[in-house]
Amino acid sequence: MKCLACTTENDPSALFCKKCGAKLIAQKNQDTVDVDKVVNLFLLIIGSGLVVSLFYFVINLLEFIDVYSIRPLRIITNLVVPVVTLVAAILMPHQKAKVFLFVAFALELVIFIKYSLL
Predict the structure, then answer these.
(1) For 65, what's the count of Cα atoms within 13 Å in the CB-facing half-sphere?
(2) In whole angstroms, what is the distance from residue 29 CA to residue 37 CA?
């Protein structure tokens, strides 16, 4: 049985990982847990982008302030999606999705630096 936390191979009858001590989940349930985790991480990324977009829309719609004129606020809100993408990449259990998320993070960081800091 493979540990989800550290990917160490353990005895099939083990309840806890021999390397990190994490609780082990039966193999048939691991696939479901991985799929759920992947879906949740991608939903987190999409949701964070939507929240930031909604924030800009509401502020501009109500015309309280010009969000783009307040530099610290612009920097913080523009950092939300790259940070969430980085966290999702670190937590992602699947290697291909992890690589995709790190590439997406790098691109988001380049865009952030170009448009928010310069």
Answers:
(1) 9
(2) 12
